Amino acid sequence: MKRIVILGAAESGVGAAALAKKEGFDVFVTDMGKIKPHYKEMLDARSIPWEEGQHTEALILNADEIIKSPGIPETAPMVQKVHAANIPIISEIEFAGRYTHSKMICITGSNGKTTTTSLIYHIFKKAGYDVGLAGNIGNSLALQVAEEPHEYYVIELSSFQLDNMYDFRANIAVLLNITPDHLDRYHNSMQEYTDAKMRIIQNQTKDDAFVFWNDDPVITQELNKYHIESRMCPFSILQKHGMIGYIADGEYIIERPTPFNMEQEELSLTGKHNMYNSLAAGITADLSGISNDVIRESLSDFQGVEHRLEFVCTVHGVTFINDSKATNVDACWYALESMTQPTILILGGLDKGNDYTAIRDLVKQKCKALVYLGVDNHKLHDFFDPLGLPVAETHSMKECVDACYRLSQPGDTVLLSPCCASFDLFKNMEDRGEQFKDLARSL
């Protein structure tokens, strides 16, 4: 019996274990940290052996194949030992793809993935399609394939997931943008990170479609390096010629396969970045045969994504906006670009090799004060303090929100758009956003 070992026992790892067990493999799950009780219960219910707080080499290095959770870096000691033993490593998505013939709609990009994925899923559900939500959001793809199969899957893919995907094929691949992010995981190489993102089109055939933002300079440069067999579906807000979708003169237009148009002001998502997200989602739905009426209604009533430019509350005339999902500089740029009131910007966290130059001018233009939130804020001080704005140094969300409120006056906006990962002070970006919302509402 073939042996599969899973490194990491969170959503993707436990889902992969469930599918491997169903398919008759000898399965073992191991996690260096503590496994959440919910996941232990899932493993026990399926009689899958597991360990936590350690990696027992004898139980791992006898595997025929390893499924690695995306959060585990290649530099992890056990991963290095697996490579030295020449044991293949794949992702949960790659594994799940072997056991389904469902249509795969896959979305990646440095920014906008979650919003676009959620919007596509919203449209498909409204159209009555049998669809599952998977990848970075929703439930594990492998678990759904094993126990709750669907005809379609809408999958948000990070670069980490794409790294360990080899034979998986996206029927519709959506690439939103490529800007510097996670460079700490890619030897500070933008090209390595870009190569990971471009893996979304590997294995596509002439029967598939590639939806991409034609205004992104990195994408357009990379396309020259690839022989792409799938149908090219570029979209733009800067040009019409050759585009399958675009926004021009206040109108949202899809040229083909089924012509569609609506007034831009009818879109529920606002801001320039959301024009790209809405175009990508509408084109994907159109390619999938969803009617114009459903696309129009869905683009008009979608409620957005938690922790992404999420309105929290207004306290004594001060508006609080939660953009905790902005874990890179480009995401913060889009958030600042959409601000219309004097802004107190919260920055900081676990730096991923950020270059803040891209937001310097917008900070000078839009911000009246800066609040740094992190264990180590030296890099932020060095870059932003010379701008001469009022600055507050904080090391907890309570300190941060109090400082923001002290620096604000009626008519201002407090924007949590930190540019950084959350793991220095918080469990994850959701925890950061929830604490921000709770404290803002308690003012």
Explain this structure to me?
The structure is a single chain. The chain has 443 residues and is α/β, with parallel strands linked by helices. The chain has three domains: 3-90, NAD(P)-binding Rossmann-like Domain (Rossmann fold, 3-Layer(aba) Sandwich), CATH 3.40.50.720; 94-301, UDP-N-acetylmuramoyl-L-alanine:D-glutamate ligase (3-Layer(aba) Sandwich); 310-441, Protein-Tyrosine Phosphatase, Chain A (Alpha-Beta Complex), CATH 3.90.190.20. The protein contains 17 helices and 20 strands. It has helices spanning 11-22, 37-45, 57-60, 77-84, 92-97, 113-126, 141-147, 159-163, 190-198, 217-223, 272-287, 292-301, 329-337, 357-366, 378-384, 397-407, 429-441; strands at 3-7, 26-31, 50-52, 65-68, 89-90, 103-108, 131-135, 152-156, 172-175, 209-213, 231-236, 245-248, 251-254, 260-263, 310-315, 318-322, 343-347, 367-373, 391-394, 413-416. The chain has a nine-stranded mixed beta sheet with strand order 7-8-6-9-10-11-12-13-14, with helices on one face. Strand 7, helix 7 and strand 8 (152-156) form a beta-alpha-beta unit. Helix 1 packs parallel to helix 7 (141-147). The longest helix is centred in the middle third of the chain and has 16 residues, at 272-287. The relative contact order is 0.09. The model has no long low-confidence stretch (mean pLDDT 94).
